[in-house]
Task: structure prediction
Amino acid sequence: MRPAAIRPIALALSREMALTALLLLGVSFVVFLILYLSPGDPFSVLLEGQMAGDTARAGIREALGVPKAWYAQYLSWLGNMLKGNFGTSIRTGLPVFGEIVRVGLNTLTLTLGSLLITLCIAVPIALHAAVRGDTALSWPLTMLAYVVSALPVFWLGYLVIYVFIHKFGLFPLISGSSGAQEHAWLYFMVPIAVLGIANGTISEVIRYLRDEMSRVMAEDYIRTARAKGGSVWRHAFKEGLLIPVTEIIASKIPFILGGAVIVEQVFNWPGMGRMAWQAAQDRDFPVIMGIAMVAAAFVRLGSLLQSLVYAAVNPRGPQE
Amino acid sequence: MKHYSQVAGEIGAYSDLPFWKKADRGDLAYVAYGLFIVTLVLVSYALGALKLLPYDPQQISIGLLNAPPGRAGHLLGTDFLGRDILSRLIVGIQAYFLPGLLAIAISLSLGTALGVVAGYRGGPADALIAYFNDLVDSFPRLVLILLVIAAFKPDIYYVMVVVGVTGVPGVASLIAGKIRFLRQKNFIEAASVLGLPAHVIILKHILWYNCRTLLIIQATLGMGEAILIETSLSYLGFGVQEPTPSWGNMVQAGANYFLQGRFWPSTAPALAILFTILGFHLLGDGLNNILEGKRKK
Result:
């Protein structure tokens, strides 16, 4: 790549990095604020069932070295987090960061895999609609996409589990880390496919991609490309496919992470979603705070990727 | 000097036909189905609130466990405790209906306010609101809800406040975009030249005349999302608790029987979720295509 083409990308990257850092700071403050405003404090969870009076509470505060003022608490929590210390889980007593790293990869696989499945379904349908216009296929496909988007993902999960148990005699209930089992790849693929199909965004994704592609296909430069006998595909690819697809990836990551919470529950998939569910049940603050931070970082990473692709495709920048 | 018809032509292909005659037949079918579902939900909600149910939703009958639809007067059959599924579905609407309206009210009011400031004022306020939108969008909605549940309590109204706030960025950016587009139009320019105060221009000429359809569409889509969130949370065990029915906990309660091959107790509420969310989505998209003219060929 020529140096002249790298500079705008580097510029966009540094600007986006700064924005991402600022946003993650905001995210950490919101997470802290929710915890700070919650009734009762984590110490009552620690002291549960120990008949703790106010003196005991003050004692444990002092013993753990918890500062009094809210901003001091926030800064010390933030400082620890920057050092990779997310605290220890109230339930298991293990460091939260290690736990999240242990299961985070499973959730990452689940999320990115489902996103890939969604795109593998949506892109051909959208391309077909954009290039061929209304055909006999387009109405049934649109309706199917609507129905699939409204389908409760947990019910589809049960259906798939039932089919696997009774028709194939397989038992895909424990998945993810079960590497040694036979058909392990299948246990791995099924939740990804279920979340990819029924995450509730597919009709929206198809509509967005179709609209963008049809808009690009109607542009003058595509007509020129056609007229001079050039490849329409090559001219339309960047604006018509690459940019909309990266936009979809960036904007749908939070939805699919939310869907992952449910799918992990249905399939007993050992991931961040199940951990968040468990933590919400036990009021295990350090864990859920850590997960919220990691999830937000993941979302921001998606947007960062999007602006990178955008800068690479259109080095003039977004203005005009 | 532009002729009137030219100006009108710029705004959109003008015709005297009412919108339902200009509309695509498919879009009208979407809206008709959506309105049917909305009516069904409203009527069922009223029936449930007035306790006009075919059976008592809590009444257990041991002789009729997992009965198929139509058996012994139970139109949609019974669940694993012999309770009437139809009555439970009707009562289950209460789990999301009012909380969903709360979520919609929050996202529409806050989103409109922020959108107006961002679109009309611009400048640093716009940048600040863009930051707020990005910040809210950084949280996966369900993770934020679980955080709030852990910090406070699993109460559906707390959850719906979160759903409402997370819906704000979408509404705000739509309204802001619409206002940026409208501000270039002659009639807004004329209104400000005529000396109309800003609040009249914003409330009357921008929001009331030009944004109300947008807001109705957002409200429709918002109800679909509220149902999705409520059912997901009930499924996860944080929503309405047994024996009070909600569509999500009905699916969950029927799960064990589902895996034994008794599909119906779990499938009936799943279908209710499917048809209702589908109705709200189709209504929103159909209205969008008809009123906002998104499908101009």
In short: Chain A is about 75% helix and 0% strand.
